Amino acid sequence: MSVATLDHESFFHAVMSTIPSSILILDERLAVLTVNHNFLEKSRGNLNYIVGRKLHEIFPPAFQDTALDQQIRDVINTGRTIHRQRLTYRAPGVSLRTYSYSICPLQLHHGSRGAILVMDDVTDLLRLGEEVRRMQLHLASIVESAGDLIISTDRAGAIMTWNSAAAKATGLTEFEVQGGKLAHHIEEPQNKEVEACFRGIEEIDDRRSVEWPMKCRGGESIPVSWRLSRMTGQQGEATGVVFVGRNLVEQRAMEAQMHQGEKLAALGMVIGGIAHEIRNPLGVSSAAAQLMKQRIAKPELLEECIGKVIAGIDRASLVVESLLRFARPKPIAETTRVNVVGILKNALMFASGEAAAGTSVEWTLETGADNLFAEGVQNLLELVVINLMLNAFQAMPGGGRLAIGLRRDAAEVIIEIGDTGPGIPDAHLSKIFDPFFTTRSDSRRSGLGLSVSHSIVRQHGGRVDVRTSRNGTTFVIRIPVARDAGVESRLVEAS
Asked: Which of 341, 319, 447, 473 has its CA nearest to residue 394?
């Protein structure tokens, strides 16, 4: 079997033609022996013209400022190769170009020496590298300037980068934490969740937000809200995780401050309401006591004054008791059979007296009978009705009509208190029974309003409903009928 011999000259010309660099072969006089196709294409020259000419004759004048000629002579004389040198030139009307070149010694025929000059235009490559470096610096600047904690890890959870915000929040520098496990810097038991993330790295959901407290240098910890994103390689495989964390210390402090402010505002409203509710019975008691001090001669007037003092004290005690019930609600242990008709009449007398000044409100009371009994505590139920009536009066500052109705429906006694005011806005309707909610600028009755009334009715096992429109509002109170209701109660039972 014959073995094909290699045609060295054909091989040489094939290599010269396919190499993407510009190649020149020079003799000791720096005369060109040959060049490859890439050089002819770049220089737009002719091989017949170039061969035999000196280097400075075929290169642009701008190249003549370099030490290229001397470097080639040194390589030919010493036999040492020069690797990857760089030269730049700017020809008229042409942008600055940069070339990388290498010079290798070459043994020619008959013992003569020469050199190979290999050149590459790296202008675009350098420009691209500079763009990449600028982009890297820009991204690094963004990461370092971010107010959020930005930490990257490999797929095993070892810390790779740790930005300035993370260092500031924890007191730990990037040098101290780099290479360590991120889970070591998260408080227990949440550090177990961090470790689990890396075990299931392919399933990380970047839409998920978690809160993991982070350890600091001094041993304390800070609350941090984290968002996780996977880093992927060229094949789409997970190469690591980026953690972006929001330091919640200031947010929590602000929330606490706002909560404290809300509590103080609520406390102020309650205090205003308490002061108003207690001041009225105390004023009546004080006036009665002044009369008693004058040694009233008429027994009936003296008895009336004493009654007013006792009633005022009872009313003030009832206000305090109602507040305690609201603050610590509990089922009412002892109830009695109370006449709701009497409660409505007493409440209307008190409320109309309170609201009489400056108002022109007409009212009607329809009970259907003289007696209708419910199961409850008379003073508390009276307080509920008074509050609702006063609210109705205040809803009609320009005058209107207050309608009070009473009926029985099966096992419930139903009280309806309606006004012809402007109604309750939809935005407020869901809040009217919230503690301390009010639309009035003053603090009167703010502490003992609908929230306390609602609480008292619920303690009686009943409920309060509301119907409202632009033509007015009606509150409906439902409480259990008296367990031993007699014939007089059944007479007014609703059909």
From this structure: 473
CA dist 345 and 475 (Å) reads 17
For the beta carbon of residue 171, count every other beta carbon within 10 angstroms. 12
Task: Look at residue 474 in the predicted model and tell me its pLDDT.
Answer: 93
For the chain, give the mean pLDDT.
Answer: 79
Judge whether 329 and 322 are in contact, CB under 8 Å. Answer: no
Per residue in 4-51, pLDDT (tens digit) is 555 666 777 677 777 788 888 888 888 888 888 888 888 787 888 888
Provide the β-strand partners of residue 478.
414, 463
Sign of CA dihedral 161, 164, 166, 167: positive
Fold of 8-123: Beta-Lactamase (3.30.450)
Q: How many residues are given for the chain?
A: 495
* Pairing mode of beta strands 400-409, 361-366: parallel
Task: Please give the residue that has the higher pLDDT: either 219 or 305.
Answer: 219
pTM for the predicted model, two decimal places: 0.40
Q: What is the distance between the alpha carbons of residues 359 and 344, in angstroms, rounded to a whole number?
A: 20
What values do phi and psi take at 103, rounded to 5?
A: -125, 125
Cα-Cα-Cα-Cα dihedral sign, residues 385, 388, 390, 393:
negative
CATH code for 329-490? 3.30.565.10
Domain boundaries, the chain: 8-123, 146-247, 252-309, 329-490
Q: When comparing pLDDT for 333 and 377, which is higher?
A: 377
Whether the domain at 8-123 and the domain at 329-490 fall into the same CATH topology: no
Domain 146-247 in CATH 3.20.20.80: no
